[in-house]
Amino acid sequence: MEKWTLIIKPKTSWFDLHLKDIWTYRDLLLMFVKRDFIAVYKQTILGPLWFLIQPLLTTIMFILVFDKVAKIPTDSAPPALFYLSGLVIWNYFSSCLNKTSVTFTANAGIFGKVYFPRLIIPLSNVVSALIGFAIQLTLLLLLIAYHHWVLGINIQLNTYLIFIPFLLLLVAALGLGVGIIISSLTTKYRDMVHLVSFGTQLLMYATPVIYPLSFFEGKYKLFILANPLTPIIELFRYSLLGVGEFNPWHLLYSTLITFLSLFIGVLIFNRIEKSFMDVV
Q: Which of 106-115, 176-185, 252-261 has the highest mean pLDDT?
């Protein structure tokens, strides 16, 4: 009698997720992470230096436009550190969202040939984006040290630094959850891809990347707070620069929205993956 090491069965319900298969295929996840990193920078001259060039140039542009011209306050923080601290979190979120939102359409060729847990692909995108985040966070820390020790600007780190790993988890979960929801919709509605590209750019202006939360009052402040990224960026700035607003209830709201999005995303992704090859 033959003994099979793996038996593939059809999923019978919304909650038939087979999440333990992700751990079984962890080597494949790491292989996809390596593939993504090499594929992007293999034939470039500067390679991973683009992780530094992009936020530096964007920060300089923000200083010229929003600090020098528009005179938008930065809560007494040095403008370079204020803008870069927002960009570090925002770039990680947008990278997770944009990559995971094309999971089905970009990997249809692989999905149609061999079995593996489909959730491995979006998870690998989130993990590979951590490389860029780590490089940009290092740049931010170096600039903080430069402002403190060379320019003599008093920047006090505080105990809220312990929240940074949790904030990173929230950003990854939110990008993954929203991304796989959109990816599931793109199997039938291809124009969602264009909506994501355009919508991500607009979303940045509804997030306190180029302005502090204290810049708004009343209904406008409530609108900005409705964005689950707002408490994350505000606490990230508060922990590193000592500026911004931190409200634990706002962070709780962000946490609930994030994991609700991830839960719904995984359920929809699990439902769509059975039949997406018929419509892609």
A: 252-261
